[in-house]
Amino acid sequence: MTRVLVVDDHPVLRDGVRAALVAASLDIVGEAASAADAVRLAVELRPDVVLLDLQLPDFSGIEAARRIARDAPDAAVLAFTMSDDDETVFAALRAGAIGYVVKGVESRELVHAIETVAHGDALFLGPGLARRVLAHFTATRAAASAPRVTNPVLEAARLTDRETEVLELMAAGWGNAEISQRLYLAPKTVRNNVSTILGKLQASSRGEAVVWARAQGLGGASP
User: Where on the chain is 4-aspartylphosphate found, per UniProt (predicted)?
Assistant: First the structure.
């Protein structure tokens, strides 16, 4: 059963989300109304998914996503907000979100989004949102392959065979512990590989690296 931490400062909305997720047999392990509590509970409860509003009273959900990606890296952050402008969307991805859902979607769509990111897949729900994100990463890939680009944002060609293996499993939704077992590597070695991959791809977070890897067709390995 997918374990979910729901973060939103509006009690009525949390009530509605809770009812929809419970009806779909998802496990609500906690709720938070602030960014600070979101980070604390993500670390304490280790949910599979953090459903995260980006407009919170103490500090932004973008910063909360960044801290969760750092302190609870196995939790998939799913941004859940009213805003669908490109600046907010890509800020969330850079901070570590693996999915983005614009409020107003149907309950079944929200449940599908949660289950999707819980398995490590990127998902974007909102008017034209998936198309815009795909266009962004397609343009990024084209820029990275252009001969005049001297500092491409993402340089996958520089990955070693081992780093490529690790990235493939990251894109498939595997956590560090699972990657360690699959590849017979020490946990510290996996953490070091992940850090190196982020540096080589110039990705600011695990989530950004995963989204890019999925756009390249990686992530076919089954847990």
Answer: 53
